[in-house]
Design goal:
Blueprint: E1 8-9, H1 39-48, E2 50-52, E3 59-66, E4 77-82, E5 86-88, E6 92-102, E7 108-126, E8 140-146, E9 163-164, E10 179-180, E11 190-197, E12 200-208, E13 217-222, E14 228-233, E15 238-241
């Protein structure tokens, strides 16, 4: 008989996953004949039936517990298969149901396994106040967080390429919505307008009529002809016009 209140911390099954979704699907299981009498065994089977798609996670941490072990009373197990495929995209509690076939019986039994899934993610936390529009370089430190404790998507990109979108107080976890790529060119700024076609290169001076990040298309005004044209932001002082 399985214990009724057994909770397993599956540290040895913590999963490392890349930026791509981690997939671990098992369509059927064929355990050794008999009753294993071990919650760990059924929890591991439940975990293997789950498709994990928490792409930002460094590691998955899972608590597992069999909710109704009494259904296996007097059952000599012939095989076990998952009743459904479960796809997990966020942390939380999930119910996995395993269909158990007992020997010498035409009936199947349903074993319910609860999985409490959390994820460890790496990100940044401020070490001092960062004003809106300021760069975060030198004002943050890298840390690991439990995803269940974070309200939002953790920023784990290049911290040197972004600025604060809002004022950030010390010990703030940097979320994606808190930062943005700064404008390379700002409205009203004088810029170089360059154009090249069929080996002919033309350069003049213009004024930006819009803010723009590298790769953005913005409107600029030629300060000599007063003509308004569109071009693509190349760097912090250059707009390329494509004919």
């Amino acid at each position: 008989m399985l214990e009724m209140r057994y909770t397993l911390r599956i540290t040895h099954l913590a999963f490392r996953i890349s930026h791509f979704a981690f997939l671990f699907l098992l369509f059927s299981f064929f355990p050794a004949s008999g009753n294993t009498g071990n919650d760990d065994y059924f929890v591991e089977l439940a975990i293997k039936s789950v498709e994990f798609q928490i792409s930002e996670a460094e590691r998955l941490l899972i608590d597992g517990k069999v909710l109704n072990p009494q259904v296996l009373s007097d059952c000599t197990i012939e095989n076990i298969i998952p009743l459904h495929r479960l796809s997990v995209e966020r942390t939380g509690n999930y119910l996995v149901q395993l269909k158990v076939k007992c020997k010498n019986s035409f009936l199947t039994r349903t074993l319910n396994v609860n999985l409490q899934i959390d994820a460890e993610v790496e990100g940044y936390k401020t070490i001092e106040t960062v004003e809106r529009g300021e760069r975060l370089t030198g004002k943050v430190k890298k840390e690991k967080f439990l995803l269940s404790k974070v309200r939002g998507k953790v920023f784990n990109g290049d911290i040197n390429k972004v600025v604060a979108k809002v004022k950030l107080l010390p010990n703030t976890i940097i979320l994606q919505r808190f930062v943005e790529i700064p404008f390379a060119i700002k409205r009203g700024q004088l810029v170089r307008i360059v154009a090249e076609k069929n080996g002919i290169y033309v350069e003049t001076t213009g004024r930006a009529l819009q803010n723009g990040r590298i790769g953005d298309t913005i409107k600029v005004k030629n300060i000599y002809s007063r003509k308004v044209i569109e071009g693509k932001v190349k760097d912090e002082e250059t707009v390329v016009v494509v004919f």
